[in-house]
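Hello, quick one for you while I still have it in my head. A protein chain has come my way and I'm curious about its shape. Can you walk me through what the tokens say about the fold? No rush at all, and the record is pasted right below.
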Amino acid sequence: MARLDDSHFGLDLALSQGQIGRQEGMGARLKIAAEVMRKAPDKMKGLAQLVRMALAGENPMRAGAYMCHFIIEGFDADEAAHKARILRRMLARHGREIANSIPTFVHSVPFAPLFNVLGPGGERWVPIHGVLAHDQAVPFDAAFKNLIAGRKAEMDRLGVWTGTMFSPVGATGFLYEVALYWPDDRTAYHRTVLGAEYLSQQPQFPANAESRAYADDLKQAIVALMQEYGAGHFQLGRAYPYRQRLSPQALSLLGAVKRELDPKGLMNPGALGL
């Protein structure tokens, strides 16, 4: 076996009870149940999984300060079960096993309903991510926690809070993602995507320029901290710096390529600072 798991991801308690754990209304829950049944090897196994999820309720999302979830695949059920047994032996000393409700949901519904464009309490939120070298993940985590601890009093005053999740990116990178929440009014995007009927049932905040500005400042501080630890990003030039990270030689080469391929500056003018 080249590897034991198909994928795995971890999250802290705040995020597990927020964006990941939240699925609003009976309609969303029925859709999840239908997808679990559709993707089960047979109907009896699908029904058994739904029963286990129902009995577990939301307890798996309150099981500890951090949770790590594994998705295992195999050529057949025996190989998948064998991989699961090996993982259990490897992980037993690091924690305790909980119901597999979250990975079952993630695997069954990879594209969840868009209710999560608002936070679990109707807040505004933004994700911030960095891909770190594996040996930088623990030092960054400690530095991030120190950053949040130093700002806790002001964050509490303004209703700003965070949740975190993480996942390996192959054998070479470690994805560390922060969800940053703050109380604020909805935007036109939220009203268009979610619709008046859904929003009428959710908490609403007045416009909050102070919390919004603080959240933006904290976001920039988190991005800068990720940069200190050598993080890469999946997007460039907007929330995450690009030009600032280039040497003069690399910046000169990039400008030359841009001028050669786009001499009139027609392609996405101003992007990446070019």
